[in-house]
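Input/output pair, single chain:
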Amino acid sequence: MNVAGQPTRTLWPAPDGRRVEIIDQTRLPDEFVVVRLDSLDAMAHAIRSMQLRGAPLIGVAGAYGIALAMQIDASDAALDAATNVLLATRPTAVNLRWALDRMATHLRPLAPTARVEAAWQTAAMMADEDVVACAAMAAHGEPLLRALWQRHPERPVQLLTHCNAGWLATIDWGTALGPIYRAHDAGIPVHVWVDETRPRNQGYLTAWELGQHGVPHTVIVDNAGGLLMRQGKVDACIVGTDRTTRTGDVANKIGTYLKALAAQDTQLPFYVAAPSSSIDWEVRDGISIPIEERDPREIHAMTGVAAHNPGFDITPARLVTALITERGVCAASEAGLLGLFPEHA
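Output:
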């Protein structure tokens, strides 16, 4: 995607090939700042503090965190320790575990002397694969938006999204926003209602990147979505996912479940863009997914007032119209997913 007209990814190796540079998302939308990370601890902090965030992105970031760790100590013990440090940063998004397992599986059979180069090469390959997967999801999701437009060609397609599932949440293209970008580029008029997404306000990241790409959008408070749906101002909802069970339940940013309920009540499609790296084939029921509890100070700074700050909620498969994956669109069900990913049967 473009930043001020320049093609930009969210994460890339530094010119020296031994450090990593990222867009500091805690500084957006007010400032565009690039931060250089030179150690495992720096990467873990960046993930934990949400300098970089989004399930696909933190998976790739975790892979690069292993590469940074291997430069200091490439032993088995160091590999295990680095994996544990990174895995503890964000417990809900399964992409992180998926990426760390893949790195460990690839590196463990190698001699320690070969692990540094292999780690950097594998992390770079995973970054490129994420771009390809997101581009494929965009291609598979665009016809859904085109069909909505063909019902009312006299006006833009009105879409509602929650949190940020754009290119800032991935290496490039995005998950839920990918089909929107592709539709916009194809000349399909779209307008996006952007949930503010408290308490971290990731909706402003969505608004920033939509603006960079020239996509019309309007930021709304989180609780306005149901009203807009009732008023006929929304044609469909499209969101991302941090973990999807093999039966189609979806863990996504807190507030997603409420949007899905409102969409069902108003008979609107509720689409979820779900890359295969976010599918947890070992879990059948979303209620068993661990929910990250974030710092209560994100909500308020009042002393003596208790606060509960879960980062995610679970949307049951029955509320999901379809899943958009890099292999195609399917029903939010075990049969639907296995139809696209038969190797997990």
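The first strand starts at residue 2 and ends at 3. The mean pLDDT is 95.
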